[in-house]
Amino acid sequence: MRIALVDCLAAGRVGRRLSSVDVIGSGPRLVVGILKSLGVEVELFECSDVVEGRVGLGGFDVLMVSGMSSDIASMVSTLRRWGGRGPAVAGGPACTDYEELLRYGFTAVVWGEAELSLPKLVKGLTSGDLGGVPNVIYRDGERVVSRVRPGYAVEPLLWSFQPDVESVRRYRYYWASRVYVEVVRGCSNFFRTTLPLPLLGGGRCTGCGVCRSGDLEARLGCPLGIPPGCGYCLVPVLYGPARSRPVAKVVEEVEGLVKLGVRRVVLSAPDFLDYGRDWLVRPRPLTDPREPPANLDAIEELLNSLHSIGRVARGEVYVMVENVKPNLVTEEVAKLLGRYLRGTTVNVGLESGDPEHHVALGRPSTVEEVLRAVHLLREAGLRPYVYAIHGLPGESWRTVRNTIKVLRRAYRLGAERVILYRFRPLRATAFEGYPEPRPGDPRGLALRRFVESLERRSKRRLLGEVIRVAVVDRYGREGYYVGYTLPHGPVVVVRSGEDLVGRVVNVRVVEVGAREVYGVPSGD
Ligand code: SF4
User: Is 106 helix (H, G, I), strand (E, B) or coil?
Assistant: First the structure.
């Protein structure tokens, strides 16, 4: 069996990334790794290559497509390119939209973690009988059959497969991209939102206390069936409580990527500071986002081992982390991160700056903890990016005013950027059934204008600075090139008389645009 796996993650409606252009997710490489270890021949493709017709899918027996809910249009465009020449399977976070995916013609949808389904799915696709495949949803005539059962992958199955390293080369700009390497699966936040919920007919949490102070095992469920975690988030629903990947497996993968020329590695985790916390409570599940505190020994062992890789130690390869939960950031934690990750970015979720709203969303932290985390991380030499969401359930003018105030404080405390997302009511989350914010909503506009003004200020700080840029391609006009800031920053357009493609160069920033910055090569 030959499988074509198409990565549509973040490809949106048009089949190509318009934001996070330099990100390579960890999921598709893991699927390739699992399939290869099952003896299946598999090739990975970027969505844009398939949708724009640069590669054909002839010669394959099965199509697999990975994406998020916001990528369904691109997943369907890929399916059209496939043209029904064999079974087509959808996976990734878009699995919660399985009805839509099946209606468009996908044969089956894999729910959540690939390890649980793929070994039997391969046999099921060969025999044409998906009845025995765990965690898949498929159509049987007019009927939609779901084989999804509660639960999550545990060792020895979990971490028994290594993501494929070689297929990173299938991404055109892999050498310059931020390549995500999974270090934690799932999230420890099993708190739940206390806002009224459409899925309960407008009812809400009764405050029984189980998910906030109960036994760790008991926190997996809520007597009312409210999905765990922040109300807008899918992670605990799809991927379960936080489980840490053994150091040796992470190091082996990073070594492989570095050998192939990858220069930027992001240690991917819904919360990097969950790393090793699960080992402190096992065999119970880590469903408490606050206790125990961060496992400093485990984090140090991981970061130290990664910094023992020659090119990382010499500063030729950057290692970064993805997100941290603000409530787990203490002075000691920040200092430890600063020792290994100085000069790199780290994401901190605020979402709402209104103290009551923040907690009611199901956040594990308080607003003051977010601000303290930003301050400590900055002091330790990291570059915090703070995230907010507009249009959330429970949003009011009061919450928006407070969010603006807190973002301003965060910026003064050293947040390098503040980033605003628009709320999307994802299926299977607690906020399913809430409306999306209307375009032109005045509260959303107020937040957006404020964030854009901060963005302009933070970009203007770059004027005259010299930054390292990995130049990946030509940019329209003759003599213009596009590249990515190292270790992380805005996309850069460079004007130069000589060919810069494939090189890492110093660039002096001479102009800032809405999304990118412009510069010229600098000898400094
Ligand atoms: S378990 Fe459910 S009802 Fe109890 S506190 Fe948590 S969300 Fe509320």
Answer: coil
pTM of this structure: 0.95
**Domain contains 112:** yes
Ligand 1 mutation pick, 191, 195, 208, 361, max ligand atoms within 8 A of CB: 208
Ligand 1 neighbour 205 (Cβ under 6 A)? yes
If asked whether residues 114 and 244 sit together in one domain, one would say: no
Q: Strand runs (DSSP E) across 154-300, as ranges?
A: 178-182, 184-185, 243-244, 264-268
User: Residue 13 sits in which domain range?
Assistant: 2-146
pLDDT digits (tens, 9 = 90+) for 381-428: 999 999 999 999 999 999 999 999 999 999 999 999 999 999 999 999
The answer on 378 and 351 residing in a single domain is yes
Same domain, 397 and 490: no
Q: Is 224 in the pocket of ligand 1 (CB under 6 A)?
A: yes
Q: Is the CB of 283 under 6 A from ligand 1?
A: no
Residue 238's CATH number: 3.80.30.20
Task: Please check the confidence at residue 136 and state whether its pLDDT lies above 80.
Answer: yes
Among the candidates 431, 460, 489, a domain finishes at 460
Task: Convert the pLDDT of each residue in 508-520 to its tens digit.
Answer: 999 998 788 999 9
Kindly report, residue by residue over 291-302, the tens digit of the pLDDT.
Answer: 999 999 999 999
Q: How many residues does the chain have?
A: 524
- Substitution site in 190, 192, 194, 199 for ligand 1 pocket (most atoms within 8 Å of beta carbon): 192
Of 389, 372, 183, the closest CA to residue 271 belongs to: 183
Find the CATH number of the domain harbouring 509: 2.40.50.140
Task: Give the Å distance between the CA of 193 and the centre of ligand 1.
Answer: 8
Report the number of distinct structural domains present in the chain: 3
> Are 280 and 299 within one domain?
yes
List the beta strands (DSSP E) in 200-276.
Answer: 243-244, 264-268
Asked if residue 319 has its Cβ within 6 Å of ligand 1, the reply is no
Please report whether residue 414 resides in a domain. Answer: yes
Nearest-Å Rg of the Cα atoms of the chain is: 23
Share of the chain above pLDDT 70, in %: 99
d(CA 446, CA 328): 31
Kindly state whether residue 62 falls inside one of the protein's structural domains.
yes
CA distances for 362 relative to 6, 10, 225, 294, angstroms: 34, 25, 15, 20
Assess whether the C-beta atom of 222 lies below 6 angstroms from ligand 1: yes
The reply to whether 362 falls in a domain is: yes
pLDDT for 139: 92
Q: 19 pLDDT band (50/70/90 cuts)? A: low
pLDDT confidence bin for 476, thresholds 50/70/90: confident
Ligand 1 within 6 A of CB of 220: no
